[in-house]
Amino acid sequence: MTTGPIPLDDEPDWEFKLLARARRDVGVVLSDFERSCGGWNPVVEVPRDRGATRIIIDGSFVSPSATATSEPELLVEIASYIQSHAVEHLWSAWPVCVSYSIGLHPEVHGNVAVWWCKIGAHVVAHIGELPGKDS
User: Fold this and answer.
1) Strands 70-71 and 96-97, how do they pair?
2) How far is 78 from 67, CA to CA, in rounded Å?
3) What is the DSSP-derived secondary structure letter of residue 101?
4) Would you state the pLDDT for residue 79?
């Protein structure tokens, strides 16, 4: 995974790079959801939106959905945004720490986007590598 800022000097190339990263990151987070609990197949769009990262989930969005322009911060913001929609769909926390039965938080630790357990103060998984429900 590429880390660091997206060069913003070569307009509009930076916008397409940001859009490509956002689309990739959406797929990464949705793969965590599908692997860890499934049962929700949202319609997700990441359209071009004048330099903003806008993520439309089942027709609903906040613009911008994310403001970061570098990794791993962009991945964490997108994970948080998708997580908020998943929680509304499930009516429960997602993802959950199996050790403490509490919801995890997308955070950056050691320059890596992770699912973090605040109670146990530990990394459960890198975002995109959440274990399956039977693991």
Assistant:
1) unpaired
2) 9
3) T
4) 96
Q: Over range 70-86, report the average pLDDT.
A: 94
Residue-wise pLDDT for 85-94, tens only, equals 999 999 999 9
Residue 22 is encoded by which pair of tokens? Answer: 């956002």
26-32: list long-range contacts, CB under 8 Å, 24+ apart.
Answer: 26/55, 26/78, 26/82, 28/75, 28/127, 28/128, 29/75, 29/78, 29/79, 29/82, 29/83, 29/127, 29/128, 30/82, 31/128, 32/79, 32/95, 32/115, 32/125, 32/127, 32/128, 32/129, 32/130
* Terminal-residue alpha carbon distance, the chain: 25
Most confident of 41-50, 51-60, 76-85: 76-85
CA distance 41 to 76: 21
- Determine whether 121 is exposed, middle or buried from the number of CB atoms within 10 Å of its CB (0-12, 13-18, 19+): exposed
Asked if residue 9 has pLDDT above 70, the reply is: no
User: Average of pLDDT values for 102-131?
Assistant: 97
